[in-house]
Design brief:
Rossmann fold, seven-stranded parallel beta sheet, two-stranded parallel ribbon, alpha/beta
Length: 333
Amino acid sequence: MLNSTENKTITNSNVLVTGGAGFIGSNIIEKLVKQNNKVICLDNLATGKMKNIEPFLSLDNFHFIEGDIRNFSTCQQACEDIDIVLHQAALGSVPRSINDPITTNSVNIDGFLNILTAARDNKVKRFVYAASSSTYGDSTNLPKVEEIIGNPLSPYAITKYVNELYAKVFSDLYGIETIGLRYFNVFGKNQDPDGAYAAVFPKFIKALIKHEAPLIHGDGTQSRDFTYIANVVQANELAATTQNPQAVNTVFNVAYGENNSLNDLTNELIKGLSEFDPKIAEIKPIYGPVRTGDIKDSLASIKKAKELLNYAPEYDVHTGLKEAIKWYYENLK
């Protein structure tokens, strides 16, 4: 339900968040439980963490299902009496998909089809799903606009594009309303700094807090449209509640619409963390080989989301980094 007194928030609804114990899902849930929703979280805890949803476990309007989207009966159970599905569950990481394409395909395509079919069977009104900027592949077009994509550069990119194709076909055949959100390099609290496939910001922050040099793949001039988590939460709510018929059954870039080099942002991390620990100011990054499947530059056009969803990202990368640095320093030190 759309709350007209606020900026398009989800209220008084039964909402399923798949991958809800993960980074993005847990941030979405944190907002939804405060807005008089009943929130169901489905997660198999393969990459999600119980600590991310522990604050919600005692709430009457939150329910956790430990289960896998690759199990269709689990998806059917999770979709019962649901108004909105916010599908965040996936096996992320381009390098992981290159190392293990079969598991990535199983989770991201079989799992997606399961939850989409279960949503259709249970007459879910709106199905919002996490798409990916990796879909742009080898396209050199900048900024990235939704209608122009290239050839995929990894199994992960293929899976996320197939999700878009399935969503469009299900919308056309069965009438379920779907909206895909192509995330661009999301960062913020609850993002896991550990493991071989950890994202760059939490990984770098943890290294710097331990007085270790962060490793940059390539020369550091590669640029990304880094997107703070609050902007992504906003986009999910807008997609779930929009009444604009032009905004339904399509995909949107979710970003800030500005790119920055990895060198510049690493220096910004060092400067920000040195305010908590002056020794960090002396650390310099080290450089390694370019990773297979990586793109050189990424920049999103957010014109479509602004016009059709009224998307208005509140955090640029610099403001978001300040928030993230503070949270990580308090939680990792």
